[in-house]
Amino acid sequence: MNLINFDEEKKEILNYIDEANLLLERAYVPYSKFPVAALLIDNNGKKYKGINVENASYGLTLCAERNAITTAVTEGMKKIKLLVVTGNTPEPISPCGACRQVMKEFSDKDTVIILANKDGKYKITSLEKLLPYSFALENF
């Protein structure tokens, strides 16, 4: 995302959101009935997808963001360029704290986070805004 051509960039963002929203029906959410999906693009332009996968033991539930990130890391991803997170919420969805911390591990100051909902409403943000004063490698 480089804000050179606003109309093209907005169209690209909406396409990413649409692609993520298509994943919502694949979410495994028999308990909460709260589907979440994520679309990750790494620094090499490769896409990875994630959905939330619930478990009867709620603590074992895997969030969509962490699902996408761990899949990407398995395939060799080092840095997130862009991450879209979407859900069936009235306003753009907000990642949980655990997901924010995992997102931080694979993000940098240029990582773009798009929080969206199934209706296409969205907010562009950064990890610094989502997780200020974060716990990270540079703190060691």
Automatic annotation (TrEMBL):
<keyword id="KW-0378">Hydrolase</keyword>
<protein>
    <recommendedName>
        <fullName>Cytidine deaminase</fullName>
        <ecNumber>3.5.4.5</ecNumber>
    </recommendedName>
</protein>
<feature type="binding site">
    <location>
        <position position="63"/>
    </location>
    <ligand>
        <name>Zn(2+)</name>
    </ligand>
</feature>
<dbReference type="GO" id="GO:0008270">
    <property type="term" value="F:zinc ion binding"/>
</dbReference>
<dbReference type="GO" id="GO:0005829">
    <property type="term" value="C:cytosol"/>
</dbReference>
<dbReference type="InterPro" id="IPR050202">
    <property type="entry name" value="Cyt/Deoxycyt_deaminase"/>
</dbReference>
<feature type="active site" description="Proton donor">
    <location>
        <position position="65"/>
    </location>
</feature>
<feature type="binding site">
    <location>
        <begin position="52"/>
        <end position="58"/>
    </location>
    <ligand>
        <name>substrate</name>
    </ligand>
</feature>
<dbReference type="InterPro" id="IPR016193">
    <property type="entry name" value="Cytidine_deaminase-like"/>
</dbReference>
<comment type="function">
    <text>This enzyme scavenges exogenous and endogenous cytidine and 2'-deoxycytidine for UMP synthesis.</text>
</comment>
<dbReference type="InterPro" id="IPR002125">
    <property type="entry name" value="CMP_dCMP_dom"/>
</dbReference>
<feature type="domain" description="CMP/dCMP-type deaminase">
    <location>
        <begin position="11"/>
        <end position="138"/>
    </location>
</feature>
<dbReference type="GO" id="GO:0072527">
    <property type="term" value="P:pyrimidine-containing compound metabolic process"/>
</dbReference>
<comment type="similarity">
    <text>Belongs to the cytidine and deoxycytidylate deaminase family.</text>
</comment>
<dbReference type="GO" id="GO:0055086">
    <property type="term" value="P:nucleobase-containing small molecule metabolic process"/>
</dbReference>
<dbReference type="InterPro" id="IPR016192">
    <property type="entry name" value="APOBEC/CMP_deaminase_Zn-bd"/>
</dbReference>
<feature type="binding site">
    <location>
        <position position="96"/>
    </location>
    <ligand>
        <name>Zn(2+)</name>
    </ligand>
</feature>
<dbReference type="Pfam" id="PF00383">
    <property type="entry name" value="dCMP_cyt_deam_1"/>
</dbReference>
<dbReference type="GO" id="GO:0042802">
    <property type="term" value="F:identical protein binding"/>
</dbReference>
<keyword id="KW-0862">Zinc</keyword>
<keyword id="KW-0479">Metal-binding</keyword>
<feature type="binding site">
    <location>
        <position position="99"/>
    </location>
    <ligand>
        <name>Zn(2+)</name>
    </ligand>
</feature>
<dbReference type="GO" id="GO:0004126">
    <property type="term" value="F:cytidine deaminase activity"/>
</dbReference>
<dbReference type="InterPro" id="IPR006262">
    <property type="entry name" value="Cyt_deam_tetra"/>
</dbReference>
